[in-house]
Every structure is written in C-alpha cells, then in structure tokens.
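Model it.
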Amino acid sequence: MQVGVSHFHAIGPRRKGSVVGRRGVKEYRAPEALILIAADRDQKPLVCPSCSSADVERTPMRTADDLQGGRVTLHCNTCGRTAAYIPRAVSSAALPEAPRQHH
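Modeled.
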C-alpha cells in the first residue's frame, strides 16, 4: 500500500482548454522579444522569432519622419505573439559615449 498523495490530486485536475497565465495574451519570451525589437530599431525586415513568419505588424507604422516617442507594438499576425517597447531618444546627449559639456 502506497502512502502519500498522488500526483494527480496534489496538483488538481486540469480542465480541458484551460489557460495558464493572462487570458488571450501571447507575448514573446524575453530573448525573442529582444531579437524582434533590435531588428525594428535597426529598421531591418521584421520576422517573427517564434514562427518565422514575415507577417509582423508594427504599430504605429514607421514613417519617413519617424518621431521617436510613444510606445511601439510589434504583433505577429500568424502566431499572435506581441512585444512592445518605448523607443529610446536618439540624441547625442543621450548616448553614453557623448562628451560632457562643461559650463
């Protein structure tokens, strides 16, 4: 006779179709998100690092006079994964290697 709690009862039954985590939100794992964000910052073609689809939508769309501000969302229309980031300011004062100005 085995003493103790069976694995099934310790965890509990899992309902068919139950979702773990936030419902309906599929986010990239951190390394995947970083790959996609780096490609977007470098203005390279966006390819989903999860499913390899080229159907990645950027919101807001990039324009010729792209203003660096606000939130950027990258969404794969094939697998439904999403990543979001805030673009960093592109100015010489914001770069770590910029010389300090003395007054």
